[in-house]
Amino acid sequence: MAGGYDYDLFTIGAGSGGVAGSRRAASYGARVAIAENWRIGGTCVLRGCVPKKLLIYGTHFAHEMADARGYGWTVEGSLDWGKLVAAKNRETDRLEGIYKNLLSGAKVEAMLGHARLKDAHTVEIGGKTFTSKYILIASGGRPERPAIPGIEHTITSDEALDLTALPRRVVIAGGGFIAVEFAGIFRAAGAEVTIVIRGDKILRGFDEDVRDHLTAELKKQGIAIRTGENIARIDRTAAGDRATLASGGTIEADRIMYATGRVPNTRDMGLEDVGVHLDKRGAVAVDEWQRTTVPGIYAIGDVTNRLNLTPVAIAEGRGLAETLFNDNPMSMDHTDVPSAVFSQPPVGTVGITQAEAERLYGVEGVDIYRATFRPMKHTISGREERTMMKLVVEAATGRVRGVHMVGADAPEIVQGVAIAVKAGLTKKDFDRTVAIHPTAAEEFVLMREKVKR
What we know:
Layout: E1 7-12, H1 16-27, E2 32-36, H2 42-47, H3 49-59, H4 61-70, H5 81-105, E3 109-112, E4 115-119, E5 122-125, E6 128-137, E7 141-143, H6 157-160, E8 169-173, H7 177-189, E9 192-196, H8 208-220, E10 224-226, E11 231-237, E12 240-245, E13 250-253, E14 255-258, E15 262-264, E16 297-299, H9 310-325, E17 339-341, E18 347-351, H10 354-361, E19 366-373, H11 376-381, E20 387-394, E21 400-406, H12 410-422, H13 427-432
Parallel strand pairs: 1-2, 1-6, 2-3, 6-16, 8-9, 8-14, 9-10
Antiparallel strand pairs: 4-5, 5-6, 7-15, 11-12, 12-13, 17-18, 18-21, 19-20, 20-21
């Protein structure tokens, strides 16, 4: 099927999106190769979603033990951080093996090494060149750190996942989802945690009620949040690391972690040399069909810096394979994609925020329903954690345009509600749905009173 080329598809990057697209293409008879310069599995499996969630599960036992005492259990325990990390590593190693087997089982040829484009149909890797009818860029992203004095003393989420010992004091620069997730991990494990952000709130881009509610819950746990601050320099001392703030203050820590953003992995790949347009952050510009500015070269996932979620990259990769090799044109719909923040407590969200709705329909064109409550579980456990649930409704049609939740099991609950949002269901449809009692999720179909502005 290669028609004069070595391959029909050559994928650069063996993360979730690249692997999914390559396997799907191979299932339709395409001859496929995939190149990876680190380990098969990519960010999600090895440096992101999966290992991070495992650490969240492990450290959340601190909350569970505290709850158990309120229910009459005598529970004592301490965390062996090294054992937790070792168990996490065993699982990621297992998953890497599964990904390798999936590729070999699909007859996708895997190559290890840094791949670089020579022209629109030629890839160089390890001193060898290969030609392909189509090239897919699925190289993902990497953590970004600012060029300030002492930045070499800091860690990112990559290194934080593999710390052999738990730091006693942790400073986290950044207020995005990675920052608040690791803040929860370290705090539940017993560390003192300080978040430092330039803005006035965490989770920029999320609904304001989500931002405010999660902030309050993190502070209840003893996580300090320094807003309107920026780290100017970092010095290593005998007692640890010292972060000097632009305002003149200092914070002492055993580890300083930067979670201020990620950038696309496009360095030294020859993309611009062959005519592929990159934006100012180095992201590959693509259209709705994943096409770059060079015919025959495509890009999916985080390297495009559009909607950086693993399921999105997988859907884009599979859609491209359907389009190119199964005569089934399929493009990714990026609207109403649900997402989660695995903070402690977690966030689940789908659709648009209240602010986005008001920009679209005007303030009077939006109805807001919101509930905050203490979950039934904590009426006995004694924990003061509260849940927040919110519906954003287009007043003229009654359509539910946004669902937002902060609280236990929020991602699990919102995943189901996301089907309703994607289907365009209305507030009346929610109202007609019978509640499951007693649950937290039932509040989404019980909210009746609009929030007064």
